[in-house]
Specification:
This protein has 557 residues and is of the alpha/beta class. It is built from 13 helices and 25 strands. One of its GO terms (molecular function) is flavin adenine dinucleotide binding.
Length: 557
């Protein structure tokens, strides 16, 4: 049985929740949000430290893997992505970071009109309610609550001092005028709970009569008639159903899901999808190309003294036996930690003008995405390569819509990436080995001779993996770009009634975490969609007036 909506949004992640909320603000518009995962009512999602249970498991998590990566000595990479309302914003470390202003100016320079930093900033501010910063760079009153950590570890101050000791100054706001520097992480939390895109945008508006939210509904294809998207087919409870869109279908399934769905629908490069038995209805070779992701390497140390860190120990059990009731009753205490309590942006070399590396300081031992457990307390730091030149792909393994996509980031396939990573490896080690941590720092998990570049490179290839920021697989660009999938309005090239709105449209990676930029993209897209609808209504009204005037004139003849 088919049902009509004005707009269908596929994917209830960071972008999809924004779109569903913003488009349904108009009571005359009907919106259906279709999400493959379940609801976001789990305490693991609401309690900030719950991410440690979800990230390494399949709890609310697609838990994808890459194909074997030659650049990682043949290892498969791990790719956790949120599978619930809120998407990855419901399982991530809640870090609020936007990227460098030059990232967005670069998008505009590639022919994407309207996407410069000054044109994106109003949408960052529209989304945001920052409890700490109130200036030209930040917003108040938006749905997404941003604040400081309630109960940071005492070790955080040591991290900031250690950064200072190697020339990375304290910066009270890496999202403000200047990105360079280190600070305590700002987080998307509200009153001690995770403030995911679902909690920010969707939950307050679920009672709207014009908004339908379908969960545990896997979209299997976009229905296209001629060159227009008219609906979607999805599976829920083992039953195939079709719903139609009178205005638009908007795909917001993420950097993996969006190209997968387009290809399943016959939209993509014919040479990729035709051999799988899928009819090619629209040739678009850029679908699934241009995958970019932040490659990341973690250094971890045990603590040799009783510092305020997380770990598997009797002491931790005692701490949590007090912390959990505190959070349940007052939403305060250690349960509000995001683990990744420190952030920093810096330069690999003195001649670099835009930070190209990032630190993320974690008050626990991190090994293989927390999939390897250590029975000690400790601390870690992530080193992230912010603008890798390597490019990968997301393609179909089969025509089965329930099969995971074939993810191939091609880490370190570009020769320029490894030297920057090695330089960053040395800076991270210098920071962690500074005298600031003397008396705190115990044994290192994976010691390597820091004077041996070959050994450092092998350490990186043996242990590096994603920092969870895949983008670019439905690239935004002008029609003159053969790899562009959407235009600057995020409309799919060559088709009507179809847009892609999520991190997959980023033509290049931003130099920071990607959740805040994805929400910004959706806020901006919502305004574009509303404007298109208003323009269409005005044209229809004008045409009707013209027809009426013409009929009156004929009657008078």
């Amino acid at each position: 049985m088919m049902k009509d909506y004005d707009y269908i949004v596929v994917g209830g992640g960071s972008a999809g929740c924004v779109l569903a909320a913003r488009l349904s603000e108009d009571p005359q518009v009907t919106v259906c949000l279709v999400e493959a995962g379940g609801t976001d009512n789990s305490m693991l999602i609401r309690a900030p430290i719950g991410s440690v249970a979800m990230l390494p498991t399949k709890l609310n998590n697609w838990a994808f893997e890459t194909v074997p990566q030659p650049g990682l000595n043949g290892r498969k990479g791990y790719q956790p992505r949120g599978k619930t309302l809120g998407g990855s914003s419901s399982i991530n470390a809640m870090m609020y970071a936007r990227g460098h202003q030059a990232d967005y100016d670069h998008w505009a320079s590639l022919g994407n009109e309207g996407w410069s930093y000054q044109e994106c900033l109003p949408y960052f501010k529209k989304a945001e309610n920052n409890e700490i910063h109130a200036d030209e760079y930040h917003g108040q009153g938006g749905p997404l609550n941003v604040t400081d950590l309630q109960c940071p570890s005492s070790l955080l101050a040591h991290y900031l001092e250690a950064c200072e000791s190697i020339g990375i100054p304290a910066n009270p706001d890496v999202n403000g005028e200047q990105q360079f520097g280190a600070m305590a992480t700002q987080v998307t939390q509200k009153n001690g709970e995770r403030c995911s895109a679902a909690r920010a945008y969707l939950t307050p508006n679920r009672d709207r009569g014009n908004l339908t939210v379908l969960t545990k509904a896997t979209t299997t294809r976009v229905v296209v008639e001629g060159k227009r998207a008219v609906g979607v087919e999805f599976s829920k409870g083992g039953q195939r159903q079709v719903i139609t869109a009178t205005q638009e279908v908007i795909i917001s399934a993420g950097a993996f899901g969006s190209p997968q769905l387009l290809q399943l629908s016959g939209i993509g490069h014919g040479k990729d999808i035709a051999p799988l038995g899928i009819d090619v209805i629209h040739e678009l070779p850029g679908v699934g190309e241009n995958l970019q992701d932040h490659i990341d390497l973690v250094h971890s140390f045990e603590c040799c003294s009783r510092y305020d860190t997380f770990g598997f120990s009797a002491r931790m059990l005692a701490t949590m036996s007090k912390a959990l009731p505190q959070w349940l009753l007052k939403r305060r205490g250690k349960v509000t930690s995001n683990f990744a309590e420190g952030i920093g942006f810096f330069y690999s070399e003195p001649n670099v003008t835009i930070p190209d590396l990032e630190f993320v300081f974690v008050v626990a031992i991190v090994d293989d995405h927390a999939r390897k457990i250590h029975l000690q307390h400790g601390f870690s730091c992530h080193l992230t390569l912010l603008r890798p030149k390597s490019r990968g792909t997301v393609k179909l393994e089969s025509a089965d819509p329930f099969a995971p996509p074939r993810i191939d980031p091609q880490f370190f396939s570009h020769p320029d990436d490894m030297p920057v990573m090695i330089a960053g490896w040395k800076k991270q080690k210098q920071m962690l080995m500074s005298k600031v941590f003397d008396g705190i720092r115990g044994a290192e998990l994976y010691p390597v001779d820091e004077c041996d570049n070959a050994a450092i490179e092998q350490d990186i290839r043996n242990r590096a993996d994603t920092q969870y920021h895949p983008v670019g697989t439905c690239k935004m660009g002008p029609s003159s770009d053969p790899m562009a999938v959407v235009d600057s309005e995020l409309r799919v090239h060559g088709l009507k009634g179809l847009r892609v709105v999520d991190a997959s449209i980023m033509p290049t990676l931003v130099g920071a975490n990607t959740n805040a930029p994805t929400i910004m993209i959706a806020e901006k897209a919502a305004d574009k969609i509303k404007a298109a609808r208003t323009e269409k209504c005005q044209r229809t009204k004008q045409a009707g007036t013209a027809d009426k005037s013409h009929s009156v004139a004929e009657l008078g003849e």
